[in-house]
Structures are given as C-alpha cells and as structure tokens.
Automatic annotation (TrEMBL):
Belongs to the MqnA/MqnD family. MqnA subfamily. CDD domains: PBP2_Sco4506 (cd13634). GO terms for biological process: menaquinone biosynthetic process. GO terms for molecular function: hydro-lyase activity. This is Chorismate dehydratase. It comes from Saccharibacillus brassicae. Catalyzes the dehydration of chorismate into 3-[(1-carboxyvinyl)oxy]benzoate, a step in the biosynthesis of menaquinone (MK, vitamin K2). Keywords: Lyase, Menaquinone biosynthesis.
C-alpha cells in the first residue's frame, strides 16, 4: 500500500525513535488502543528527520534541529521532549587527547543525529574557537577514531561505547552546553505537521494525552522501564534507573530558552537556513468546548 492510500484511509502515520532514551514516553503507549487507525515506524533519528520533512509522517519525535529546519510547517506537542539540564550520558565525544586539544583537529560525526552534530559544531567553534574538519561516519567508534581526533556518538551507540571504553577521554555534550551557556539542552521534540493538526485536532489531542499519560506513569516509577532496558541492552539496573531519572522529558520555559539559544547559534553559524520560531500545538477544539 502506497503513502497516498494510507493518507486516504485516515491512518495517522507516527514515528518513534529507535533509541532507549524515548522509552519512558512509550512504555505504556499502545497505538492500537487509540480510537483511530495509526501506524508507527521506529527508526534512528536521522531517518525520522528525513521522513518527517518529506511529508511521510504526521507526528513523530525528531531531532530538535530537524524541527528548527521547518518550524513553518510543524508544531510541537506540549510537555514532551528528550532534554538534559547538564550531563546527558548518551551524547558523548570520545578522544585520545583531552577534548580542548582534540577539538582543533578532525571530528567524526555519527550519521544518526542532527541535533548533536550541530551542537558539537556550535560548541567547537563558538566555545572553543576551533575550526575543525568534519567527517560524517557510521556510528563505529574504532573506525571513527582511526581517521579522526574526536568521535561523536549518540543514543545506545554512545552508551555501549562508553561501557566498552578502552581508555578514551569522554566528554558529555550536555555538560559542555550547560557549563558554557548555563542552559538545558533539548535533543528531541515531538512534532506534528500543521496539515495533520488542521485535519484531525481531536486525534492529535488523544495522541498527545496518551503519550503524556505513558510518560507520567513511567516517570512515577522508572523501574519497569529500567528493567526492560537492562533485559534488552544489558548493563546494571541502577545505570538505567539513573539514566532515565537524569533525562528531562518536559518542555518547560527553561527548555524552550535553551532550545531557542541553540537555534540562534545555529542560525548565526549558517547551520539553519532561516530563523526558527518555536510554536506549540494547542487543542483549540477542546478550549472551545470548555468555554
Ligand atoms: C538524548 C539523546 O537524544 C537524541 C539525540 C538526537 C540528535 O542528536 O539528533 C535525536 C534524538 C534524541 O533521542 C541521545 O541520543 O542520547
């Protein structure tokens, strides 16, 4: 069945990030329990970014940078993000020399990310005054460091590489951003296309509620999510509990300030083609009903 048919049948096309960091938002979410038909594609962030921007998805978490590329066509679901107010633990630079030295050389960037690769460019060039050379690579640490001074990995690739760390210096990009700007950093946001939001506001409301509800239940007790992560990826239960408790899944004023600054720097460096104006979806139908 082609994309056109899916659209005509009223199916809502959802995305989901493949990495463990989004699990609290999905642990108690079931797309088949929604009152309307929906399909979910689970992919690496870079793939979801492309699918969303090409109009192949109606609602998806994506790299916040990808949202910044097209704020005119998309809205953010409220109170959802993958953020960190300091160390994130899974967005890591590996280097053989201290980061402040290595950052002036050659940087290997994972091809799975958009937010973090641009965050590293901002930090390297604005905070460290570096003019590095960048190469984009598959997320394989040993291969990356054969040809580069710094390797950036994100998500589960970063977590596994950190566990196997063979003595590399590890620099957490969330911590770098916080130390430099004093702000939190938002890596992923849940976006809905303005077209889909206009067509089906009730469905978007139901979806936003279901995701928020799953998140609330997961964060009230992260143990079940941490146990699932341990069963599927290994590691210690305490590691996963600490990992999920450290991440921020909200979209408060503080998060938006951090994201806004990131977009501003990205624009200044020519990484974003235009200014990014953040706009959050609100359920106008519900407000009208309640008035
Ligand atoms: C916290 C993380 O955030 C991820 C980072 C992304 C990016 O750099 O583009 C995209 C989605 C997020 O899930 C992580 O990967 O560890």
């Amino acid at each position: 069945m082609g994309g056109g048919n899916v659209k005509e049948s009223g199916m809502l096309r959802l995305g989901r990030i493949l990495y463990t960091n989004v699990w609290p938002v999905y642990h108690y979410f079931d797309d088949s329990a929604l009152s309307f038909p929906a399909t979910t594609r689970t992919e690496l962030p870079a793939v979801l970014n492309r699918l969303l921007l090409e109009g192949e998805l109606d609602m998806s978490p994506v790299s916040s940078f990808a949202y910044g590329m097209a704020t005119d066509r998309f809205l953010l679901l409220p109170d959802l993000s993958v953020s960190a107010d300091g160390p994130v633990r899974s967005i890591l630079c590996f280097s053989k020399k201290p980061f402040a030295e290595a950052v002036h050389g050659r940087i290997a960037l994972t091809n799975t990310s958009a937010t973090s690769v641009n965050l590293l460019k901002i930090v390297a060039e604005k905070a460290y005054g570096a003019k590095p050379e960048y190469v984009t690579c598959e997320p394989n640490l040993e291969e990356m460091l054969e040809h580069a001074d710094v390797a950036l990995l994100i998500g589960d690739h970063a977590i596994r590489a950190d566990w196997d760390n063979a003595g590399y210096t590890v620099t957490d990009l969330g911590a770098e951003w916080k130390n430099w700007t004093g702000k939190s950093m938002t890596f992923a946001v849940w976006t809905v296309s303005k077209a889909a939001a206009g067509r089906n506001p009730e469905r978007i409301g139901e979806l936003a509620d279901a995701l928020a509800d799953s998140k609330r239940r997961s964060l009230a007790d992260v143990r079940p999510v941490a146990e699932k992560a341990q069963a599927e990826l290994g590691g210690e239960l305490a590691y996963w509990q600490g990992y999920f408790e450290n991440l921020r899944y909200d979209l408060t004023r503080e998060r938006l300030e951090g994201l806004d600054l990131y977009f501003r720097y990205a624009r200044e460096m020519g990484l974003l083609p235009q200014e990014a104006h953040i706009e959050i979806w609100t359920d106008n139908t519900r407000i009208r009903v309640n008035e």
